[in-house]
């Protein structure tokens, strides 16, 4: 919140200058200013995959969009939601009601995202979610004000879960982070496993946040004699699970780990020695093609010397598209109605360096291809951050849950 | 297969053992806290950050100086302990005459600053640190697969706890320390440098935290928040054991590790809260803690 306050102070300092101008000029200035709020984890386990790097990506998107040359001012504020829904919805309310924020971007942690989703809808603003995973954002809880940009639990389940079952992993045990995200990921993956003829032998719900030792759960998973242990968790939890699974020799004795949500920063943290062979699904990898490499180059080093994650790339892509729509409609129009702006975004095809060409469906799902990667062995890696090899590409129209199956009220059946 | 309360016996034994291993960390960390509180009357909220620093110093030694695990086990506590000495001399020593609350706020703030600085430098997702080759591998105990490293942690933690207890209860310097806690003015009058003793005690307590940090580095993710995740539990351990009671905090550490381990089998969702439930019950029945003096 301090950064937010600092930005407000800066705005306050700028006021006397505007006060010298005729009143209509000042008002025109305010009406032409779009405020983007980046709300995510700035201090906990999801900081590296979103955090200040997402803000950096948003700033890059503003620069690349060229809207300032067209007379639209864009301001960015950021805040830490500490992975707590109460904190997240309070910040969202303050931003919209008091600080005139028009768009809220990123919001990892599904429980927080669902809370912010409601706040933004009530106030008719725009919610561009990149960081959260729950497919409920475009299913039961879909909103005309929300676009779910980067990935979701259904896509992860189809990508990684599907690949594991095809490779013979037909009995599963889940280690599930005990909150909205973990539950959604477990549910979506279990559906895939069952529909492919596999069986789910059990699951254990681990407290979130605050679990550091997973050995007890891993031993329970092993006792179930499942062939695959599905890790329905993320960030630091996944890192600890994988590290401790290796320590307890699970993988050496033929049990396969399915990291259902693994980010490139997690692989970096684990080191290739521990992470090698892990199969995972992402929609963006910095070294995927010329366009992603060019974007990574433009973004420069992320905080902590990291490379951009798909969540940060999603923030870039979402804001770029939003600003295109806003420039098209005029800033004043875009600020007036969140629903109108999202509808305009849905009507325009998307195209950017992060995800290539894509589109936004009526339920608010942004669609683009998904990629199944395998983590390289230390021998295969040719340099820093050379971590993934591409196993297969899931085309955009197959990567996400079919429109009719989500149960979204915005979809006319 | 034999079952106990509907859980297969081998699984239950495994969980008890794992609980004991986690208890070793709780014991080691609460030991340092108890030593500091017992002698200095300071509630050291920087303890989690110092635990984390131990792990990060181990990582830095490996990556910048090429010094492996065994050197880190020896040197990291010294380095972080010296940092503790500096902290005590420049800040904490100014607060001895004031209410506990001031020491608590100061150490809590310093802890947040350290954590923030490390996070800024290294990010939040952590750094890789591997189990030393001498301690990798595992024993098959029949009822479970026991990594050698976890066994090592339990043994080392026990040795450290017993050694600390012996130093304080059975040596001359320990008796000075205990006397200085009771009546610093009198001990000073006998020509013993009490402020220096306080400084060294704080340094030793901090070194114990860093030692636990090095032990944790190969099995937990080495990240800036690793200490704050653990420290709340450890404080509960110290309160349950009786503030300042060394034996109390060690026994409670191991005991609560086991309680938590069992909760992970019977009702995993509650495993993060069970320790606080125990704390509430103990405080209601014995406000001074299980081993504390009222």
UniProtKB/TrEMBL annotation, chain A:
- Give the protein name, as stated in the record: ABC transporter substrate-binding protein
Q: Which PROSITE patterns match?
A: TAT
Please name the CDD domains in this protein's record: PBP1_SBP-like
> Keyword set for this entry?
Amino-acid transport, Signal, Transport
Specify one Pfam family: Peripla_BP_6
* Gene3D superfamilies, sorted: 3.40.50.2300
Q: Which residues form a coiled coil?
A: none
Automatic annotation (TrEMBL), chain B:
Keyword flag Protein biosynthesis: no
Q: Which organism is it from?
A: Sabulicella glaciei
Judging by the UniProt lineage, the source's domain of life is Bacteria
Keywords per UniProt: Amino-acid transport, Cell membrane, Membrane, Transmembrane, Transmembrane helix, Transport
Its subcellular locations are:
Cell membrane
- Name the Pfam families on file: BPD_transp_2
Kindly give the CDD domains that the UniProt entry links to this protein: TM_PBP1_LivH_like
**Membrane topology category:** Multi-pass membrane protein
TM helices/strands, residue ranges = 12-35, 68-87, 99-118, 149-168, 200-220, 232-259, 266-285
* Family the UniProt entry places it in: Belongs to the binding-protein-dependent transport system permease family. LivHM subfamily.
Protein name as annotated: Branched-chain amino acid ABC transporter permease
Say yes or no: keyword Repeat present.
no
Q: Could you read off the lineage of the organism from its UniProt record?
A: Bacteria, Pseudomonadati, Pseudomonadota, Alphaproteobacteria, Acetobacterales
